[in-house]
Amino acid sequence: MKRPSLFSLVLALPLLVWQLAFFLFPLLFLIAISFWTVKMFQMQPDLNFGNWQRILTRGVFWDAYLRTMILATSAAVLTSAIAFPASYAISFKLSDTAKRWMVFILIIPFFTSYLVRVYSLQVFLTDAGIINAALGYIGLGPLPLLNNTFGTLVGMMTLCLPLVILLQTFSLNFVNRDLIEAAHNLRCGRLRTVFAVVVPSAKVGLVVAALFAFILSFGDFVSPLYLGGGNPPTLSIMITDITKSGQQWPRAAVVAIMMIGTLMTVAFAAITYAYKERGK
Amino acid sequence: MTSNAIVKFDNVVKKFGDFVAVERADFEIAQGEFLAIMGSSGCGKTTTLRMLAGLEDPTSGNIYLDGERVNGRATWDRDTPMVWQSLALFPFLTVQENVEFSLKMRGVGKAERSQRARKWLDKMQITEFADRNIAQLSGGQRQRVALARALVTEPKILLLDEPLSALDAHLKVRMQAVLSNLQKDLGITFVYVTHSMSEAFSMADRVVIMSRGQIEQIGTPEEIYRQPHNRFVAEFLGSANIFDAVVEGKAEGGWAVKHEGGSTVIPMAELENAKPGDKITFIVSAENMQLSMPAADHDGIEATVVGDEFVGGTAMIFLETSTGQEIKVQKSHDELSTLNRKPGSKLIVNWTSENCHVLPGE
After folding, report:
1. Nearest-CA distance B27 → chain A (Å)
2. Residue A38 neighbours by CB distance under 10 Å
3. DSSP code for B334
4. A210 CA to chain B: closest CA distance, Å?
5. pTM
6. Which of B95, B101, B134 is closest, CB to CB, to A186?
7. What's the alpha-carbon Rg for chain B, to the nearest Å?
8. Measured between CB atoms, does B98 come within 8 Å of chain A?
9. Mean per-residue pLDDT pooled into runs of 10, chain A (280 residues)
10. CA dist., res. A138 & res. A132, Å (int)
């Protein structure tokens, strides 16, 4: 290992301080309070494993855990699948000028708060909303679009889609065009080349994009509540429920630690997979 | 199309918008021939190769491959594997998987695929790297993988786009030998694009010289070197002195012509039909020039030394006449030892008639 110079240490210092103050310290604090107890709506420092035992033995927690996992995985897979053709078209079919415009357009959704966008989606998705009204004209519906899994997924994809397309587009821009021509030249047709060459070449970017969609959806509180109806709860809704009922911050901390642990495991596995190389 | 031609370019033109990349390419390539297409960057040599591979479609004209017109036929429906300048090996596949790629695309079964790939890995002497990642190979090993990958389907023709340009000099020469031997062993046609004269002339049976989309000359390396067709080719080869001259009249054994700083006799064989007043361009190669110290009555043209350059056992002396005509003379160090060749000194340049070659294309 090369020894870092004093200069690089000075440059890294703000990051280090930030991470210590706003990530590591709060995380340690979170772990600490998961062992505290609550008496008369007051938290008291303690070393009590009761919170862990209580949460981890409850079926309702594991139901919510599984539901959140499935929702976040579905959002990551669906978003990636819907985003890919768009990213492919932007990266491979558009001129450089058009590409720049598309990147700009994909950034626009971030101008508006996610909460505001989710609220306005309600107008589209309710039984009397714009989509069902339109369906009504042609004698269909109303379809249940709100307060269910469909609604939750629409919200999560609204959150993730622009980001996933941007990340996918950037990674596809770096795919060596010679490889695509070489594949064609070696008898690989157009569609097959996408799966045999483009996807493996852009693997790191595609996996990281899907990972971001998973992380954002896994911790999302807004869509499951306002578009999914909040019942049955996801883990993030469960955290707010627990804190509201009897100031149980220590038990909420247990749920939060379980979420952080899950995200770390998934992120580590995904990145290991993304960078795995073939051959010895 | 002559009977043993595998490729025929019939008046092929390629335009990108208003830019003419290839203008009227019209030539044939024989079965089993090693053809080099040479020129500086942007001359249209790579576009010509890409049209043959099916990666570009000609704007007009026809391309025939093995007797069949292939205009508009996609590259995956042709049997024209190419070796890229970047090699374009798939970094996400192992060496053997790279070699098997086109067999897999043709639906060849796993066992046969593996066996055929192994045969080519053996032939290219890279069997021990079969399970390696591409990133772990050296430049020369990657070249061999790229060749194995292109040849595994045993095509009749192999296209190569400056495959050696990234290698160091020593490895380049070694790979040239590998390519030459491979082409002879397999007896298939190689079409080799390069900007390097040494690569083209050392390996190819025939060389196509291109500039600005046009074919300037096609011939064996010997023909091109001895008898360049026009000023471009002569300048591209770099070792010829080019003189513009005017025919004055018949002389003993040829035509007397007048040029900057003197006159000379061009042999009849070089210039059959001429009349006084005709403008011609002739060349004399640098190694056929004579140099001497100025004397009272000299025969030749006086020129001033500009500088010199060592070329192995010989030196190239650069001179200039008072009217600006540039002259190059290549001599051994022994021959030069009696001459004062400091920059600024004057020397007499001379040549004999039989070393004059008229450029027919001028």
Report:
1. 23
2. 16
3. H
4. 20
5. 0.85
6. B101
7. 25
8. no
9. 79 92 94 92 90 94 97 98 97 96 94 92 91 90 90 95 97 96 96 96 96 97 94 93 88 96 97 84
10. 10
